[in-house]
Design brief:
Layout (H helix, E strand, L loop, with lengths): L1 E4 H7 L3 H8 L2 E5 L2 E6 L11 H7 L7 H10 L2
Parallel strand pairs: 1-2
Antiparallel strand pairs: 2-3
């Protein structure tokens, strides 16, 4: 991770892809305070699938429709 001032970013804008490939991540600062972070698109973390998440959860003994019906009837 490299920290770069916003003024320096303007000067390297024409070859920003090369800088990102070399550094992997850039933090853009203004007056020493981080204001943005640039990451290459290829390194984005993928989200796990919803189906895989559901497989890790234990099965309920009664269906959710029973709990919903009981809640509605109790009102």
């Amino acid at each position: 991770m490299k920290q770069v001032s916003i003024r320096d970013v303007r000067s390297v804008l024409s070859h920003l892809d090369d800088v990102l490939a070399a550094e992997g991540e850039l933090v853009i600062t203004r007056h020493g305070i981080p204001i943005a972070r640039l990451l290459p698109v290829g390194r984005a973390a993928s989200m796990p699938s919803h189906a895989d998440f559901r497989k890790t959860m234990p099965r309920l003994r009664t269906g959710s429709e029973v709990a919903v019906r009981a809640d509605r009837d109790g009102r």
